[in-house]
Design brief:
This protein is of the alpha/beta class. The chain has two domains: 150 residues, P-loop containing nucleotide triphosphate hydrolases (Rossmann fold); 121 residues, no CATH class. 47% of the residues lie in helices and 9% in strands. The chain has a five-stranded parallel β-sheet, sandwiched between helices. Helix 9 runs antiparallel to helix 10, helix 10 packs across helix 13 and helix 12 runs antiparallel to helix 13. It is globular and about 70 Å long. The N terminus is likely disordered.
Amino acid sequence: MAKKSAPVYDFPHPMDNDTLVGHMATVKNFMDAWNNRDKYPLHPVWMLTGPRGIGKATLAYKLARMVYGNVGDFFIIDISRNIDKDGKPKPDGKEISVYTVRAMIDKMQLSAMSDSWRVVLIDSLDELNKAASNAILKLLEEPPAKTLFLLVVHQLANVLPTVRSRARVEKMRPLSISELRDLCVRFMPDEEINTEILRLSNGSFGKIADMKRTGGDAIYDDLIETLQNSSATSSDLMVIARKIAPSPELYSILLDAIAHFGLADLYPNATKSIASITNLHLEPELGIFKILMDIKKCL
C-alpha cells in the first residue's frame, strides 16, 4: 500500500445512497412477499442482519422508500436522532435512549388514522439500550396495521430473543471481491484499491470507506512495517497507537495485524481488549499500545 495523504471522499449516507450492490437474494425475498401481500399477509418485521458496512442500511432505506412511497409516514430511529429525557438532541451518545423510541411511538399514534403504509426503520437495533429494546418489543408484540418495521442488526447475538422471535430474519452476507471493486469504482474512481485493502475489508465496503476516510490504509502500512522492524522501540509503537486511537473504526486493523503475522493465540485477548476500550471508555492509546506490545513480543 502506497504511503500518501488520504484524499477527501464524500461517501453518502445510506438514506441518500441509490447504489446497492449485492444482496439480491434478500431483495427477491422481500419483493416476493410485498408483491403477494394481498394474497399472503406481509410479515410486519424484517430484520436485516450481517457485518457492518455491507449495505444493510442502504437496502433498508431502499425498501422503505418503495413501501411508503412518499405518501405514507416514515419514522427513523438512529443515533443521530437520539434525544435525552428532556427531548433535547443527544447525537453523540453510545446508545439510543428509550426517550427516542417513545417519541417515535407518539408520532406514530398521531398518524394512526392514515390508510397509507408506514415504515419504521431502526439503524441499528444493536445500539438500543435495554429500556429502548423493551419499548420496541412491546410495539412488536402487536404491530400496528399496515406498518413495516425494518431493523438493521450488526450482531444478531446482541438482540433480545423475544425481539428476534417476532421478526423475519434475513441474513446478509459479506460482499465478494468483485462487488467491493464495483463499489470502489463507483465511489472512489480515481483511487487504486489494491488486493490487500480488499482482503482486509472482510467483505465490508464500509471498512474500506473508513480506512480511506481516516487514512487507515497508510496507518496499517506503518503498523506492519513498524512491527516487522527489529529496531523498533516502544516509543515507535506508541506513535502508531496514537494514530489509531482517535478512530474506533480503525481498531480492527490490530486484529488484521495479528492475522497477518499468524498469531492466532493473541486473537481472543486482543478482541476482549478492543471491546473493553470501546465499551468501558478506557484510555484508547494505552489499550492499543498494550496490544501492539503483545504482538511485538511474539515476533
